[in-house]
Amino acid sequence: xxxxxxxxxxxxxxxxxxxxxxxxxxxxxxxxxxxxxxxxxxxxxxxxxxxxxxxxxxxxxxxxxxxxxxxxxxxxxxxxxxxxxxxxxxxxxxxxxxxxxxxxxxxxxxxxxxxxxxxxxxxxxxxxxxxxxxxxxxxxxxxxxxxxxxxxxxxxxxxxxxxxxxxxxxxxxxxxxxxxxxxxxxxxxxxxxxxxxxxxxxxxxxxxxxxxxxxxxxxxxxxxxxxxxxxxxxxxxxxxxxxxxxxxxxxxxxxxxxxxxxxxxxxxxxxxxxxxxxxxxxxxxxxxxxxxxxxxxxxxxxxxxxxxxxxxxxxxxxxxxxxxxxxxxxxxxxxxxxxxxxxxxxxxxxxxxxxxxxxxxxxxxxxxxxxxxxxxxxxxxxxxxxxxxxxxxxxxxxxxxxx
Length: 403
Description:
The protein is of the alpha/beta class. It has helices spanning 36-50, 79-86, 99-106, 123-126, 130-137, 171-184, 204-211, 221-230, 245-258, 299-310, 331-345, 356-364, 379-385, 391-402, and strands at residues 16-20, 27-28, 31-32, 54-58, 90-93, 113-116, 142-145, 167-169, 191-195, 216-219, 261-263, 267-271, 280-284, 293-297, 314-318, 350-354, 373-375. Helices cover 36% and strands 17% of the residues.
């Protein structure tokens, strides 16, 4: 996706710059509890404001029923955090499209900001309705997609609108593409991908795609159980997918064909109960007791993976190695995350991570700010790992080609 048109190269002075952001952030009551997305977005917008842009922001928030204006999903509550991050007051339109919103955009002076109401209040958004996209286009002179996390959806505000206005990529979107491309498309070698999570069936395409592109593939979490089961290891009461044995062999074959080394746990942490501070037992990965379940990778496995990371220059991470939400089953994930962070600090590795559980695990380990890049995208990050074309990105590329 090299050569996407960047809004930073456009003349924005006096222009209404309509920006598709992803401000779908955690909120309790009227307070934003995690400002990461807002802070990152604002950092890219402040230079545009300084250059005289008249900024119009559109975003979704939660999953309201289309055409029902449920107040709990109003984006008005995001204004205080957004204004603080941007360093300027933020006006508000109680509709995301239509004549009244258009009038408010015309009233903006250079360097001023308008936030429009939740896009998903309107059914035309998720339907990728060209008529709704045309209404949105009336709010700007230029369009900017700065929401990589929404780029895997062909919605009116990410896909159809690119045919209505001069369309550009925003700084945050370009930053994400550059970081992810460096980690997978042109990584420094050797490279390793760490993929965890509950089920192989949800990440089949991811695992196959990565096996063809990295030197080492670490499989953790419940997915590793399925791989071990396919080798004949007893599972006791562990989470695993007995019907995915053939798929496990297909992934192994993909790794063999590309010379990718597959890494599985050699020892595991087991417990009879899945609860905080449960009594645990460390056993070989091939010896789970019948009355227990595998809930984390063991210390021998952790030591092996730390040594592996020390020999790699690119580390890509998606998914925990165990049930990290509940101690003591967080030790392998936390230990490996801190090792990756140390390598990043020393300049020995580029570390890129993404996915909701991954971000939570890195934050719990206190290293999210240390990694080279942590993607807040969920579905878009996974689809990128699968090698899929993201409609929102493709739409920007097509407008560039047309130009």
